[in-house]
Specification:
By secondary structure, the protein is of the alpha+beta class. The chain has 2 domains: about 100 residues, no CATH class; about 55 residues, no CATH class. Helices cover about 50% and strands about 15% of the residues. Strand 2 and strand 3 form a beta hairpin. Helix 1 crosses helix 3 and helix 1 packs across helix 4. The model has no long low-confidence stretch (mean pLDDT about 90).
Length: about 170
């Protein structure tokens, strides 16, 4: 009679690590690309200029105009008759028409970065949480890839310690 060989925790962790690793490859590529793009969000990197015309209420107070246009660091440069001039645009107090240019990422890249910046109110936040948990599993399951007494495990622990030290140094420098 055949006896079933009992598989070790290492076997199951390696299998899960492999399969989840293949599953998240696409997600990792998307997150790495959008993360790199987000690093340069304060520059014009990959951004295209777009003319925007918004119909607002006439006679909005100058101090409320930035809120209405949803612009950060809004600053009026000058006012001449009915025209209010601000960075990259104008607002006509009589007609309520605001015309300005905005630099935005192309639509596809905008979607990628919005996925990366998901907040709890956004339904896509579940995607980000699951991805984070899968990545956490990949990191932790790495410790079961090799037996604790093997040369590869010791090598892995050296790399782990090096990574932890690098993170601590980066946090201290920031």
């Amino acid at each position: 009679m055949e006896t079933k060989e009992r598989k070790s925790i290492h076997y199951y962790m390696r299998s899960l690590h492999r399969d989840i690793g293949f599953f998240v490859i696409g997600l990792a590529v998307v997150y790495s690309m959008s993360g790199i793009i987000l690093i340069y969000r304060d520059t014009d990197f990959l951004k295209q200029e777009k003319l925007i015309e918004k119909q607002l209420s006439p006679d909005i107070k100058v101090e409320d105009l930035g809120k209405e246009l949803r612009m950060r660091n809004f600053e009026v440069q000058k006012t001449e008759a009915d025209l209010v001039y601000f960075q990259n645009g104008t607002y006509n107090k009589t007609t309520g028409l605001a015309k300005y240019t905005e630099k935005k990422l192309p639509a596809f890249l905008e979607k990628l970065t919005n996925l990366h910046k998901a907040i709890s109110k956004n339904s896509s936040h579940i995607f980000s949480v699951v991805f984070g948990l899968l990545f956490l599993f990949l990191a932790i399951s790495s410790f079961w890839m090799y037996k604790a007494k093997s040369k590869m495990f010791r090598r892995g622990m050296i790399f782990t310690a090096s990574g932890v030290i690098l993170v601590i140094i980066l946090l201290l420098l920031i």
